[in-house]
Write a structure and sequence with these properties.
Elements (H helix, E strand, L loop, with lengths): L5 H6 L4 E6 L5 E6 L5 E5 L4 H19 L5 H5 L18 H17 L1
Antiparallel strand pairs: 1-2, 2-3
């Protein structure tokens, strides 16, 4: 479990960080910045997701302060797992899927 807050304090030194338990057994990370902005995020269970969450919190804090995001923060965001409304897979647009279907139809008709 990633409830050891030393990593979070090292990553976000200018913020007050605490964790609160949830009824399902997971934890909510509470990040309070110096200027009073507060973010609440559910702590992930694996290390890779924790690193992504740290980068996302840095980006959210920059946006909340009105600062433009730095290249360092933007360059480390994993675009393969973008959030969706349903937290499901990202699907192709209708036009892209039509082109894929046409390619498949052409392969079948050629054979």
């Amino acid at each position: 479990m990633l409830t050891n807050l030393a990593k979070w304090h090292a990553a976000l030194p200018d913020c007050k960080i605490s964790a609160a338990p949830r009824p399902d057994g997971s934890f909510v990370l509470i990040v309070k910045s110096v200027d009073g902005k507060e973010l609440r995020r559910v702590l992930p269970h694996d290390q890779k997701s924790a690193d992504q969450l740290i980068r996302r919190i840095r980006l959210d804090l920059m946006l909340a302060k009105g600062q433009p995001p730095t290249r360092e923060v933007l360059g480390t965001i994993d675009v393969a797992s973008l959030p969706t409304y349903t937290n499901g897979r990202l699907y192709k647009t209708r036009a892209a899927s039509l082109w894929d279907r046409r390619r498949l139809d052409m392969k079948v008709s050629v054979n």
